Amino acid sequence: MTAVAEHRLQPAVQSFLSGTKQLYIDGQWVDAASGRTFTTYNPADGQPLAEVAHGEAEDIDRAVRAARRAFDAGHWANMKPNARERMLWRVGDLLNERAEEFGQLEALDNGKSAGIATAVDVAWAADVFRYYAGWATKLEGTTVPVSMPFAPDKQFHAYTTREPVGVCGLIVPWNFPLLMASWKLAPALAAGNTVILKPAEQTPLTALLLAEIFEEAGLPPGVVNIVPGFGDAGAALSGHLDVDKIAFTGSTEVGKKIVDASKGNLKRVSLELGGKSPNIVFADADFDAAVEGSLNAWLFNHGQSCVAGTRLFVEDTIFEKFTQAVADAASQVKIGPGLDPTTQLGPLVSQEQFDKVTGYMAAGIADGARALTGGGRWGEVGYFVEPTVFVDVKPEFSIVQEEIFGPVVVAMPFNAEEGVVAAANDSIYGLAAGIWTKDISKAHRTAREIKAGSVWINQYNGFDTAMPFGGYKQSGWGRELGANGLDAYTTTKSVNVAL
Ligand code: NAP
Ligand code: MG
User: Fold this and answer.
1) Does position 6 have pLDDT exceeding 90, yes or no?
2) What is the pLDDT of residue 8?
């Protein structure tokens, strides 16, 4: 760890990092059945951060059995909704109280800025818990005015109820470890489900720290189980015959494996997958706001974001000036470790991700793309890369087609007469899109034509806990956040009474 990092670390973080982290199953901290552990690393210097129990199929099975017992016992699903509400609200409050501790730990494990992790990842996770806490008391069914054509002389009283799905497996990636976990945990728990959380192998730490908060908030044992491990643990969870539902965020490739693995018991599946989102700048946009917003669109979280606006479409009359302004702004961004408060762009999460992103940069250059700024590694230690703006690209280049998951944007001009929608929609993905213009008709018309789950006008990353989020096409199934987010974790029962 760097001297700066050690100097600023909270004592609570330091003590959490000492000693092997265990699995959290049935309210107990336990070793992996195999006794194995794995190391999680600090991406800023590639040095080991902590040893973590290595969960595998047998541990997943133990956790599923604990979650099943807790679900069947009914002390969670049948708890008074306002009691569940208070506990989940308390989880949000405790997260806020310990925000800096969680933020630092996230920064160390993932590489992102501790300041941003505290202000965005942790604060938003707390907001998500409180938002869904409120839903525990509002999961209402309906009364249905049935006609019953085959019983014309009888009267009926028919209604629906919303019930929890049961045991839910939650598999999350490393880019927003705590936040992606909270997007799944909060609605699942509010609806009365019990869960097994499988964090990503690169970033297991904040998920384990979260177990302390669930305990303090008073959740019964077995309601939340946390099993760090590798892809085989995720596969064991998604193939387990006693798991009723899988919620997954990660790559489209693994999303397809989860669909295959779910067939055994036809468990329900929701998926938040990859993206290659278009960010469209019309010539009549507020130039400075669009430059700043477009930079944020592809650089936020070092480009390791499923919604990253990495295909920048700029109207041809301003293309050169605009892309140069974006490249100039990108070249000013302060690169450094996440615990340095002046850092704007941290390292990528791992050697693997570093190799993947620098590989795409090299492929782009070999294909004939021109880097207005960046194009390679930054510094000599850690997994840092330069923010990179490519122009002179063709639609068939891999840097235009594929999700890079790093701070790399491809910029393409469009002509007002020909329009931009067909090019923007030319992707297997459909997660998000940005539109910049002062013409409100053009903005709404374009928003209607874009095939994406979220469209942000004159801003990018315009998320809110109350707004549903999810993908078209190969970006996923289902929606998270908002009232729609509860659909994934509830099932409807129809009750019809002959009076
Ligand atoms: P990934 O493999 O899809 O990882 C996501 C989660 O799935 C992790 O917890 C992972 O465990 C687990 N997993 C892996 N194989 C599994 C399987 N067969 N069954 C069930 N779960 C499984 O993503 P990655 O390898 O970390 O990243 C690869 C690429 O995916 C990135 O470069 C990026 O393009 C994309 N990605 C997208 C998002 C997004 O938000 N859309 C997030 C992350 C990555 P392990 O950590 O042990 O592999
Ligand atoms: Mg790590």
Assistant:
1) no
2) 81
Instruction: Strand 490-498: give its sheet, edge to edge.
Output: 143-144, 156-164, 490-498
Distance in angstroms (rounded) separating the CA atoms of residues 332 and 299: 12
255 phi and psi, to 5 degrees? -55, -40
Residue 215 structure tokens? 């305990």
Active-site residue, from 56, 272, 403, 480: 272
CA of 438 to the centre of ligand 2 (A): 43
What is the 3-class SS of 9-44, one letter each residue?
CCHHHHHHHCCCECEEECCEEECCCCCCEEEEEECC
Q: Which one, of 60, 403, 65, lies nearest residue 235 by Cα?
A: 60
Rounded Cα distance between 20 and 38, Å, is 9
Task: Give the tens place of pLDDT for each residue, 326-380.
Answer: 999 999 999 999 889 999 999 999 999 999 999 999 999 999 999 999 999 999 9
Question: Contact 11/104 with Cβ under 8 angstroms?
Answer: no
Query: Whole-angstrom Cα distance, residue 54 to residue 71?
Result: 25
- Kindly tell me the number of DSSP H helices and DSSP E strands found in the chain: 17, 22
- Nearest ligand to the CA of 177 is 1
Rounded distance, CA 364 to CA 494, Å? 55
Q: Are 101 and 10 in contact (CB under 8 A)?
A: yes
Which protein residue's CA is at the shortest distance from atom 28 of ligand 1? Answer: 251
Is a pLDDT exceeding 90 seen at residue 1?
A: no
pTM: 0.97
Q: Closest ligand 1 atom, CA of 253?
A: 3
Q: Write out residues with Cβ below 6 Å of ligand 1.
A: 171-175, 198, 200-202, 230-231, 234-235, 238, 249-251, 254, 257-258, 273-274, 306, 353, 356, 403, 405
Q: pLDDT-derived band of residue 283, with 50, 70 and 90 as boundaries? A: very high
Parallel, antiparallel or unpaired: strands 37-42 and 47-53? antiparallel
Proximal ligand: closest to the CA of 353: 1
Please indicate whether residue 272 is annotated as part of the active site: yes
The SS3 assignment for 51 reads: strand
Annotated catalytic residue 403: no
